[in-house]
Predict the structure.
Amino acid sequence: MMRGKILGYALLAALLFLAFKDPTGAGGTVRDIADAVGEFLSALTR
């Protein structure tokens, strides 16, 4: 359970890094993926 949470946060950090690195191109897509990851994690922890 904890490992999944840590993995999710690492993935989210990587996506945020990519979003800030290239804010114009991949911003919307990265934000959508981050939202999906967040919803997935909240479903796991429920």
User: Anything to note?
Assistant: Helices lie at 2-21, 27-45.
